[in-house]
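Dear colleague,

Thank you for sharing your sequence with our group. We've completed the structure prediction you requested, and as agreed, I am returning the results in plain text so they can be pasted directly into your records. Please verify that the sequence below matches your submission; if there's any discrepancy, let me know and we will rerun it promptly.
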Amino acid sequence: MGNGSFDTGLTAMASYLGNVILPICAGLVLCIGIYQLAHRARAGERYITASVVCLLASGFVRLAEYFSTQNSGQDQFFYALLSLTNWVGNVVMPMYAAVNLLRAILAVSNGGMFEFTSMGGNAGRHVIVAVGCLAVSGGLRLLEFFVTSGAGGIH
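Please find the predicted structure tokens below.
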């Protein structure tokens, strides 16, 4: 065994857990939540939250892998921050919007359609958060387009 074999094994294990095991767990937890909601009429919100946590942990492992493969230099912090912003805007925000839409559907289905009387209720709040997440994600993508098209014309 050469030098660094433990580090290589640890990196491979973290990659396997983050890229294979956690997304599978997220799918299983989501299936359990749907089963619980359909057959026992329990609130499925905690299962949706657990599956999102599994997917976010998987994304954090992938993000750490990406950061560790970047070249070292004076712009490494800038590119790491740019990558983090891009990942949050393009992955986390749309996924959180989908989660809030599911939460709105669960809030309406648990309380009944006719009990939805104001925008201050849970379902209305979740819809507003989902629209806000998609607006932020779209705004970041629009800014990214302007930056890349502006930088392409300069060089």
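Summary note from our side: The chain has a mean pLDDT of 75.

Kind regards,
the structure core
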